Amino acid sequence: MKKILILMMVLFSSLFAKLENIEVNAEFLKRDIKIIDIRTPSEWKETGIVKGSYTLMFFNEKGGYDTDAFITELNKIVKKDEKFALICRTGSRTSMIAQFLSKELGYDVINLKSGIMKLMRDGYKTTPYKKSPLFLK
Questions:
Q1: Triad 66, 68, 70: Cα angle to 5°
Q2: Can you tell me the distance from the alpha carbon of 57 to that of 135, in angstroms, rounded to the nearest whole number?
Q3: Fewest CB within 10 angstroms: 32, 37, 122, 129, which?
């Protein structure tokens, strides 16, 4: 009975989960939506960040991660039912993480496909990264 109840809860929560995949562009950045940059501090320093975005590393420099710590910090930035966007270098990492956040945890996520590199190729001027307390070690 417990297994059935848990299964029903997971299925029910996935009905409300939303995942959008949008090709990132300067026009999207004008929307009033929080953008979480999940890259690493060295990447933020190298390219800069989207103005007003939140820097919250998911994978560290060696490819390791701490899902629980990431979710704890994410919940300080967005509410679970609040739509937000994820950006990384090219969209590969955000594709996986957005899927997980949406399908497994019920967040309303937008995956910004092609990432910061596309924005820069299109002429977008990033903001220099200044150390933020919102990244995980």
A1: 70
A2: 5
A3: 32
Which two three-digit tokens encode residue 33?
């939506």
How many domains would you assign to the chain?
Answer: 1
Give dist(CA 80, CA 106) in Å, integer: 7
CATH number at residue 58: 3.40.250.10
Is residue 57 situated within a structural domain? yes
pTM: 0.83
Beta strand segments in the chain, E: 18-23, 34-37, 54-55, 84-87, 108-113
What was the pLDDT predicted at 109?
97
Q: Write down the pLDDT at residue 60.
A: 93
59 vs 137: CA distance, rounded Å: 9
Cross-strand partners of 55:
37
Structural domain span for residue 70: 2-121
Closest CA to 120 of 63, 54, 43, 60: 43
Considering just the CA atoms, what is the radius of gyration of the chain in Å? 15
Per-residue confidence (pLDDT) for residue 90, from 0 to 100: 97
